[in-house]
TrEMBL record:
Source organism: Trichinella pseudospiralis
PANTHER family recorded: AMINOPEPTIDASE, PROTEASE M1 ZINC METALLOPROTEASE
Name by which UniProt lists this protein: Aminopeptidase N
SUPFAM superfamilies attached to this UniProt entry: Leukotriene A4 hydrolase N-terminal domain
Keyword rRNA-binding appears in the UniProt entry: no
Domain Aminopeptidase N-like N-terminal: 61-248
Gene3D superfamilies in alphabetical order: tricorn interacting facor f3 domain
Length: 285
């Protein structure tokens, strides 16, 4: 019996073999982990998030924003689904001009959700539709930017129409599109629409607002028309604005008496562009 037990014990050769196999397996596992970590950190390095103070590229510039926005908030004239209260829907078309060849279009946005299926990019002169990559866009929340990825390169001196639908929130922190009348402060326009939200990017704004029938929509320019479109909703459209920076663009939907005053020769840039900037004054009852 003792001899059988002794024979069943592994020899030094077999022990070395087992040790070698074990070490080999451990090394292979460690190498796999190491390779995975290297690939992960390389991908993170190649796609570093943009810093919070990142500036927009100058490869394209905006020429005109055409915006239609509908606001939802508790109102005696209309009934909105509970999940839509204190939100707004936007439909935006931006005419842009390509300055230098690029396959990216980067804009500012904050707390806005773009409907991916609504994206369209059309070359203005040829009416050619340009498809988007997959994914069509990426949002950098820290930098407050969104980058769109067309499959074709945009060419210098050509103009394009970039269209999209999106949703946002009517904030209560007096920033962006909030629950009161306002004009945007620098960098707040990006909370109302995806835009080139830096002062040097000047463009024309053409606005249409859909709002409850017992309210009034106001903007920088006089209204062109106001009409009932359905139930207790009214559509108000405004004249195109003068060329201006995004932070001067103003939207208001009010349900209180107001007075409009105008101020000319408002300095909006170093060229002293002459505009008629509408001021909104709430009259306390």
């Amino acid at each position: 019996m003792e001899q059988e037990v002794i024979k069943s014990r592994p020899t030094s050769k077999s022990r070395r073999l087992i040790t070698t196999i074990t070490v080999t397996v451990v090394v292979i596992v460690l190498l796999c982990v190491l390779v995975g970590l290297v690939i992960y950190f390389m991908s993170k390095t190649l796609r570093q998030p943009m810093p919070a103070n990142a500036r927009l590229p100058k490869s394209v510039k905006p020429l005109e924003y055409t915006l239609k926005v509908q606001v939802y908030y508790p109102n005696s004239a209309t009934t909105s689904p509970s999940d839509k209260l204190f939100t707004f829907d936007g439909n935006l078309t931006v005419e842009i001009e390509c300055i230098s060849s690029t396959k990216n279009i980067t804009m500012n946005l904050e707390e806005i959700n773009i409907v991916a299926s609504s994206l369209k990019l059309i070359e203005k002169n040829t009416k050619k539709k340009i498809e988007f990559s997959n994914p069509a866009f990426e949002v950098e929340s820290v930098a407050q930017m969104v980058t769109f990825y067309p499959v074709s390169e945009l060419e210098p001196n050509k103009r394009y129409f970039l269209s999209m639908s999106y949703t946002g929130k009517l904030a209560d922190d007096l920033q962006g599109f909030y629950r009161a009348n306002y004009t945007f402060e620098p960098t707040d326009a990006r909370r109302a629409l995806p835009c080139f939200d830096e002062p040097e990017f000047k463009s024309v704004f053409t606005l249409t607002v859909i709002h409850p029938a017992n309210t009034t929509a106001l903007s920088n320019m006089p209204a062109v028309y106001t009409k009932i479109i359905r139930d207790a909703w009214i559509e108000t459209s405004f004249q195109p604005s003068v060329q201006m920076s995004s932070y001067l663009f103003a939207i208001a939907v009010v349900d209180f008496p107001y007075q409009e005053s105008y101020e000319s020769n408002e300095r909006v840039d170093n060229l002293s562009t002459i505009i008629m900037l509408k001021r909104f004054i709430k009259i306390l009852l």
